[in-house]
Amino acid sequence: MQPIKEIRSRTVVLPLADVDTDQIIPARFLTTTSREGLGKQLFHDWRFGNDGEKKQDFVLNKPAANGCKILVAGHNFGCGSSREHAPWALLDYGLQAVISTEIADIFRSNSLKNGFLPIVVNKKCHDWLLNNPGAEVSINVEESTLILPSGDCVKYPIDDFARYCLVEGIDQLGFLQQHEKEIQMFENSRQ
């Protein structure tokens, strides 16, 4: 994982509520244990027609979405079954964060463990973001703040351990490996 201290980007807006993990990455693409390549399948059934051609009216297929790293989604993003492939697909596509008024607990946990930032904001901020697609925003991970183009600063909740891991660019195993010497000393003292 790469350290994430700040994300600056235009937003791409997917205003649909209750987007579940099967819509993020359909189950038929879960045959891999590799993170690479899943971005091609992100929102597959919404992005592509039965003929495999891109649907021009889908938000991620529009030119304005190119280069956007922040997805603004409708209420209750990431609900449904647990699958790490969902944040993997979002990351592989090039997105680094999702903003909503509610994010499913298991999806949030899987996201944070894999370097994808799920942000919950209040309805007022969310409504503004939904109504201003392409807004240039800044996310400060260390301060847990979202900065809007107006300069308004919105705090978002994130647990301290998850924030530490994102900023350091490590996962839970990497955290434990940082303390290998202390763990070994403890184990040796027990003998």
Can you offer a commentary on this structure?
The protein has 191 residues and is an alpha/beta fold. It has a domain at 7-136: Aconitase, domain 4 (Alpha-Beta Barrel), CATH 3.20.19. The chain is 32% helix and 17% strand. A 7-stranded mixed beta sheet has the order 4-3-2-1-5-6-7. Strand 5 (136-140) and strand 6 form a beta hairpin. The longest helix has 10 residues, at 180-189. The two termini are 35 Å apart. The model has no long low-confidence stretch (mean pLDDT 93).
How would the blueprint of this fold be written?
Elements: E1 6-14, H1 21-24, H2 44-47, E2 70-73, H3 85-93, E3 97-100, H4 105-113, E4 117-120, H5 123-131, E5 136-140, E6 145-147, E7 153-155, H6 160-168, H7 172-178, H8 180-189
Parallel strand pairs: 1-2, 2-3, 3-4
Antiparallel strand pairs: 1-5, 5-6, 6-7
Characteristics:
32% helix; Aconitase, domain 4; 8 helices; 7 strands; alpha/beta; 7-stranded mixed β-sheet; 191 residues
Strand content: 15-25%
SS class: alpha/beta
* Number of helices in the DSSP assignment: 8
Instruction: Using the coordinates above, name the CATH class of the domain at 7-136.
Output: Alpha Beta
CATH topology of the domain at 7-136: Aconitase, domain 4
Order of strands in the sheet with the most strands? Answer: 4-3-2-1-5-6-7
**Could you describe the largest sheet, including whether it forms a barrel?**
7 strands, mixed
Distance N to C terminus: 35 Å
